[in-house]
Structures are given as C-alpha cells and as structure tokens.
Amino acid sequence: MRLQCEVEVVSRLLPTCGLRGRGRGTRALLSLGRPPGRARSGGVYLMVCTARDRAGARYKVQENIERFFTRFVEEGKATVRLREPAVDVCLSKANASNLKNFLSAVRLAHQGTDIGALPLSALVPAKTSEVEKPKTKMIITSRRDYPLTKNFPYSLEHLQASYCKLARIDMRVLCLKKLRKLDLSHNHIKQLPATIGDLICLQELILHDNHLESFSGALCNSTLQKSLQFLDLSQNKIKALPIQFCQLRELVNLKLDDNELIRLPFKIGQLDHLRFLSAARNKLPFLPSDFRKLCLENLDLFGNPFEQPNPLVPNIQLKIPLTLLECAARATVNYSLSETRGNGSSPLAHRSVIIRRQHWSERY
Predict the structure, then answer these.
(1) Which of 14, 88, 96, 236 is the most buried (most CB within 10 A)?
(2) Mean pLDDT over the full length of the chain
C-alpha cells in the first residue's frame, strides 16, 4: 500500500537538545511492505521516500508504534509516533480517504496481523515523479515548446499557451479540473467548445488576439456562472454577445476592446459584480438603458461611433430651492407692484416701491 502526501519526520529528542523541527513537510511517498528478498515471515516496514532521499528511510512497524494521532484525519492530517527510533511521522495534505485506509493497514501491521491479509507493496525507491511537488503552473510561449506527445500535469492551476498558432483548444486542456487561469492569447482560435464549462475552478479566461466570431451561450449556462471573474475577449471579431452572457454574474473584469461589437447585452445591468469594463474601438452606436445599473470603477469606451456626443451624461437640470427670506421678499414686491398698478400709479412710483422693498429685504 502506498500514500502520497507531505511528510515531516520529527525526532522527539530535539527539545532536549534545545532544537525543534522545521514545522513544514516535504512531498513524499509512503509505502507499507517488506524489503525485497526477505522471507515471508519477515517484518513489515514503513518506508518514507522524498525527492532528496528517493531510496527511502525504513521504520519497523510491528509492535513499534506508540500512538496514532488522528484528530484531523478528515483534513488529510495524522501523526504516527514510533517507539524506536523516537520519532513522530507527521502526515499532511493527504487524500482523507486514502489516509484512513493507509492508517488502518499500518495499525493491523503493528498488531501483528497475518502478512497475507495486509495490502503490502514492494519497498523499492520512488520515481522522481512520485516525490516531486505537483506542478501548478506552466507557461508556453512558442509552438516548438508545446507538448504534443506528453500530457499536461493534472495538478496545473495556471496554464498559458500563447503564440502557439493553435486553431482550436486542445481537448487535453479540458481535463485539467484544477485549472484556475487559462491564457490562450495570441493564437488562431475561431470557436470555443462548450466543454470549457466543465472547468469548475476556472476564474480567469484570456483569449486576447484570436479569431473568435462569437461567444457561446452554452458557456454562459455552465459552471462558469459561479467561477469566472476575469474574461478577456479583446482583439477578436465578435459582433454581439448572447443574451445569456449576463448570467456570468461573478464577472469582475471584462475586456472587449478591438472587436466589431454593434451592441452590448440589454440586461448588462445584471452583472452586479462588474467593476472594470473596457469596450474601446468597437462599433457601438449607443448603450443599453440597463447600463446605468452597473457600479463600475473603471470604464473605457474610446473610439465608438456613438450617435449622441455624450451618451452617458443624463439630461438633468438641477433646481436649487430659494431661501425663505428671498421667497418672502419676492412675494412682497410682487404684491406691492400689483397694488400700485391697480391704483394707476406712475412708473416712478413703481420704482420707489421696488427700492423700498429691496431695502426691506436687505435689512431682514
């Protein structure tokens, strides 16, 4: 039986020497079995192989385990305390189910269970790929470096394949379930497969400088609704986005520059997490009325042939209410003028009345 996880072997004698362990594990392969060439009655050993020590360190198991610490086994953590040598084998970042099975086998071996009933493995040196830290990032910037006969590591979280002259998305990429960022910029991709929506962890999708003419509505109905936060479709040939596009409600940053867009989705206001939007150098004649609902921090619409000179500036005239003093003065003046005119007084009288009323308003 084998288990891949991170391991730290800590000597319990360190504190007596005034020392302590590093506190972090290293990628390792644990094996439970018998050394090659040993008789069937030979003891069972626990072997720990790391990148520095691929041959592995062996520890006897039968009647040599002092205690199991399994409080955090559901989180992929456990510790096996050995009597001789006095060390703690600390396990972390393991698959919880695999860890439980491995600890059960170690417990049975410790209790002296018949070897024939144990799921043992050959104690042989580990392969380099078995003890290397999983690769999470790969950047390819030329066609000659693009892997044609070799699969992508399934542990990838960030993949960039730019300037590779890709005409379509490699189906092997769609098997990378841990992928968070996919950058396929500067290629010749014309169409997006709906299966991109199966990348349940995808947060960033960069398709800058390709030959896309549309964005599939099926992608908008996929799991991307809950994961996609950054989408770059700039420098393509897209004329319109589907109605379903506004279902990508987790979008924070959207780039649509240098396309052939003649309109934006009329329900774009539903993208309530959107903060950065650029759609410069398109063919937009107007913005949908729903646009006013967006809470943007940065907006770039340069180079669009809008029909109105200021499509985002509403035609609103603000009226500031008069003070109570000014309202009273105006009413008094108007009343006096009407009284004077009714009595047939001369223009000079009108003027004197106005002067008196102005003097009164200045005093009060």
Answers:
(1) 236
(2) 85
